[in-house]
Amino acid sequence: MTATATKQVRPRHLLDFQDWSPERLTAILDNADTMLQVLDRPVKKVPALQGLTICTAFFENSTRTRTSFELAARRMSADVMTFAAGASSVSKGESLRDTIEVLTQYRVDAYIVRHHASGAAHLVHQYSGKPVINAGDGRRAHPTQALLDAYTVRQEFDSLDGKTVAIIGDIRHSRVARSNAELLPKLGAKVVLCGPATLLPADLAGLPGVTLTTDPVQAVRGAHAVMALRLQQERMSGGYLGSLQEYADTYQVNEALMQHAESGAIVLHPGPMNRDVEISADAADGPRSRILKQVENGQAIRMSVLYHLLVGRD
Predict the structure, then answer these.
(1) What does the DSSP 8-state code read for residue 39?
(2) Intra-chain end-to-end CA distance of the chain, in Å
(3) What is the pLDDT of residues 286-298, one digit of tens each?
(4) What distance in Å separates the CA atoms of residue 215 and residue 230, rounded to the nearest whole number?
């Protein structure tokens, strides 16, 4: 296994993309190719993280992200310690600081953290002093999801340079949309964010390479990839939408909308999906869909991230 990262100061964490150069981000995508080759072997395991203990500290429910990270760490021979807040002393009122300080006494070498509060991953580093990978914090960031999205688009078109990715749905509550809006322009792509005005925060228009629109046809025109986002009703306190049907009638990603995109455009969704709300069955299961490919690529990307952050570190 050969890392292709250039000689730069190596980041200690993946909390967002602010301190990451395009070269190092590209190296993670490049090395995911190698990780996919590992996953295709009869024995899907390498010794890269042997002797290290990685804690998946999930304070919020997750299926694909947690499973993907745990498999990625085990494929690289790490010991994995699983922490689920719902079955822990957190449910009795224990603070984040106390929880992390206790877990760190078990000789944890790195944390993978999901939390409902923005900025929680930063606090875990502060309390533990260990490398931290953000597996989703509040509305702020979900960097490995954005990396696997970028990897899936690059896999399809060989390069992200000059490509356009339209992201349609609940932009306001989506850490996936924010991370993609940070990442994709660093790699040469343009991002169009689209949703009802109530779910389209104007501050994102200030990001380089990012445009906003409330018109889904305008959003997908010329797009090489179209990503549908789930409506996060659990984060809404009301007043954002008239009705689900009204939303679906206008913003659902379906084959009729995809006719306005580039002829070879692909469909993405970070999951979990609400079929027939933000995405139709024909788009989710049709020939343009790369949704299951995103899941497959997630494991390879997370192996690559672990490799870049932890292998060879003192």
Answers:
(1) H
(2) 19
(3) 999 999 999 999 9
(4) 18
